[in-house]
Amino acid sequence: MNQQTIPNVTLFDLLARNWQRQAAIRQLCFNEDDTILAIGSADGAVALARIGDNEPPESRIAIDNGQTTISPRKGKPSPLISTRIQEGAALSAYRDGTFLVSTRSGELLHVTRSGEITGKVLSDRTPVSAFAHNHAADLTAVVVRRRLRLQPGEAQSTREIDLGDLAPVLVSISDDGGLIALAGPDRLSIRHIDDDSGPLWETGLSSPPLSLKWSADGRWLVCGLQTGGLCLLDAETGESIVFGDFPGPVGTVDWSEATNTVVASGAYRIAGWSMTAAPAKALATGRAGFVMVEAVAAHPAKALVAAGYANGRIAVAEIGSPEELTIRDIGGPVTALQWSAGGRYLAAGDALGNAAIITFPNEIFK
Asked: What is the rounded distance in angstroms from the CA atom of residue 359 to the CA atom of residue 344?
């Protein structure tokens, strides 16, 4: 009698919807109302995925004699929405559920949730080198060469600020819309949005910046570096802290609002520090190993962080605890992770072009 081998089914197989792209996934971005995910690939193509799940986990869960099981999906996910963009560089959520997409040629495009390009944010031909949008303040910040342009609301009028010799490659606006951070090749600068007189604080960087993120309360700014770890800048005092013991580049950084903890990639475990009290306290999170963490994303409401590894593994860990839940065991190196605003969906992308939306059951994280 022939015995057939039944392959192991992972949580990823049960919970994720997958789409195969032609190139590595570079960036993932949910829109403001968690209805659409924008997917940016390394070849410049941008596509959109609908968040609504036709087969949510709850519809496939069964309880038999006290044992809970979940059945696999039966159908394929809805096809992606294609856009005409073929040289996309960076993505951001914009107002009314739409997106902003910068291109390699320096344009900043407004893209609807149906994938249509409705126009350019800047009407002139000045190339955009970095941008950010803040939903709460409805403020768009655009860097053109060594000048910063601030555009509030839908008004076409902009304020333009001369940045001197600073040529930012990354820009980030604090959650309350009061401060803006600019990261150039050799230094990090913080300015008041309403003050054009000059920087509030500046600090030097030992290596080019790769990632930039404000804490939810606007107190701390973290900048991940190509080499040399990460730099934290206190927006209240101007004090900077450098955590330099990282074996790899810190390509992603994030903040856990639930624990006031900064988390980072670039190490052989999830790197994290609690900023609740001075000095910063290192928090051992998840399991240590021999595979590099390539991407991290803090849950928007719970004390959890998702991590993606160079061997394709994806896990969700409790911050400050070795306990973690493996979602995917193996695959292409993880290049991007992003939680939806409500924390029900986790988007993941890898170097083999696989983009996925993982839908978690309501009770999986109690």
From this structure: 6
Residues in Cβ contact with 163 at an 8 Å cutoff, skipping those fewer than 6 apart:
143, 146, 147, 148, 182, 189
DSSP label at residue 344: S
User: CB of 310 within 8 A of CB of 2?
Assistant: no
Q: Alpha-carbon distance 221 to 265, whole Å?
A: 16
Instruction: Check if the beta carbon of residue 32 is closer than 8 Å to that of residue 95.
Output: yes
β-sheet bridge partners, residue 188: 183, 203
* pLDDT score, position 364: 76
Degrees, nearest 5: CA angle 326-330-332: 125
Which residue is it, tokens 């036709």? 54
* Spatial contact of 168 and 179, defined as CB atoms under 8 Å apart: no
- The amino acid that residue 335 corresponds to is T
Interstrand relation of 271-274 and 261-264 (parallel, antiparallel or unpaired): antiparallel
pTM of the model: 0.94
Nearest Cα neighbor of 88 from 134, 32, 41 is 41
Per-residue burial over 11-28, b = 16 or more CB atoms within 10 Å of its CB, e = otherwise: bbebbbbebebeebbbbb
pLDDT, mean of each 10-residue run, the chain (366 residues):
53 95 98 97 98 90 81 92 97 96 95 96 82 95 93 81 95 97 97 92 97 97 96 97 95 97 98 92 94 98 97 97 94 98 97 97 75
Q: Which has the closest alpha carbon to 251: 221, 212, 282, 287?
A: 212
DSSP 96: G
pLDDT of residue 155: 65
Those residues with Cβ within 8 angstroms of residue 146's Cβ, 6 or more apart along the chain or in another chain: 162, 163, 164, 165, 166, 167
State yes or no: cis peptide before 279, omega within 30 of 0.
Answer: yes
